[in-house]
From TrEMBL:
<feature type="compositionally biased region" description="Low complexity">
    <location>
        <begin position="24"/>
        <end position="59"/>
    </location>
</feature>
<keyword id="KW-1133">Transmembrane helix</keyword>
<comment type="pathway">
    <text>Protein modification; lipoprotein biosynthesis (signal peptide cleavage).</text>
</comment>
<feature type="compositionally biased region" description="Basic and acidic residues">
    <location>
        <begin position="65"/>
        <end position="74"/>
    </location>
</feature>
<comment type="function">
    <text>This protein specifically catalyzes the removal of signal peptides from prolipoproteins.</text>
</comment>
<comment type="similarity">
    <text>Belongs to the peptidase A8 family.</text>
</comment>
<keyword id="KW-0645">Protease</keyword>
<keyword id="KW-0472">Membrane</keyword>
<feature type="transmembrane region" description="Helical">
    <location>
        <begin position="80"/>
        <end position="101"/>
    </location>
</feature>
<keyword id="KW-1003">Cell membrane</keyword>
<feature type="region of interest" description="Disordered">
    <location>
        <begin position="1"/>
        <end position="74"/>
    </location>
</feature>
<feature type="transmembrane region" description="Helical">
    <location>
        <begin position="203"/>
        <end position="224"/>
    </location>
</feature>
<keyword id="KW-0064">Aspartyl protease</keyword>
<dbReference type="Pfam" id="PF01252">
    <property type="entry name" value="Peptidase_A8"/>
</dbReference>
<dbReference type="GO" id="GO:0004190">
    <property type="term" value="F:aspartic-type endopeptidase activity"/>
</dbReference>
<dbReference type="InterPro" id="IPR001872">
    <property type="entry name" value="Peptidase_A8"/>
</dbReference>
<protein>
    <recommendedName>
        <fullName>Lipoprotein signal peptidase</fullName>
        <ecNumber>3.4.23.36</ecNumber>
    </recommendedName>
</protein>
Length: 236
């Protein structure tokens, strides 16, 4: 019997034969699934990280509406400095000239500068520039104060040198005449402005009036050219 089994051989067992391939296939499937899941996780993480980086970059790149680039802020401050520098220069000249006129020329004969074409003749003017509207002194005082406030507000958005000069002339002239209206007789906010420049066949005026007129003419020219106080140029 033992000899017969040796000759014939032991038959293969199906369960034992099939166990190896199935286990191998199952292990391969699990390993493949683990690899795919890991790849998907890494890809999802990379996508989220990339999206977060782009969103952060977009947030950092978007400046607020009220901010200007760093390079333009010093320029804006320089234009404001020019505005107040021009205003102080015009105001100082007007104030000094009026002090000299009151001390040396008032109640005296006029002085001929260019023959009959130009004279210095000291007068007191209760009205607006060039002697207009003498009955409305208080109204012109309020207007001058309002002009000063408006110019001060515009200065915060000033990025144009020509506008800085024009507004500086307006501000200096308005301050010059407003000082007369506040401190000179006949009383507070009713004071008469000192005028002394008397061209032939023209109204008598002062340096503050000249600064106001020059600043106004410059503003009109800038407006015709399409230049705004913030430096924006409008082209037709």
């Amino acid at each position: 019997m033992a000899e017969a089994e040796r000759i014939i051989g032991t038959p293969d067992i199906p369960e034992a034969a099939g166990a190896g391939p199935e286990q191998s296939a199952s292990g391969s499937t699990e390993e493949s699934g683990s690899t795919e899941e890991s790849g998907a996780t890494e890809e999802s993480g990379a996508t989220e990280e990339s999206g977060a980086t782009e969103e952060s970059g977009a947030t950092d790149a978007a400046p607020s509406n009220d901010e200007r680039p760093e390079g333009e802020r010093p320029k804006g401050r320089r234009k404001i400095a020019v505005l107040f520098g021009v205003a102080l220069f015009a105001y100082g000249l007007d104030l000094i000239s009026k002090m000299i006129v009151v001390a040396k020329l008032e109640h005296h004969d006029s002085i001929e500068v260019v023959g009959d074409l130009l004279r210095f003749n000291a007068i007191r003017n209760a009205g607006a520039a060039f002697g207009f509207g003498e009955a409305y002194t208080i109204i012109f005082t309020v207007i001058a104060a309002a002009v000063i406030v408006v110019i001060a507000r515009l200065a915060r958005k000033l990025y144009s040198l020509p506008w800085a000069i024009a507004l500086g002339l307006l501000l200096g002239g308005a301050l010059g005449n407003l000082t007369d209206r506040i401190f000179r007789s006949p009383g507070l906010f009713k004071g008469a402005v000192v005028d002394f420049i008397a061209p032939k066949n023209f109204a008598v005026f002062n340096l503050a009036d000249s600064a106001i007129v020059c600043g106004g003419i410059l503003i009109v020219l800038l407006s015709f050219r399409g230049l705004d106080p913030d430096g924006t140029v409008h082209k037709d």
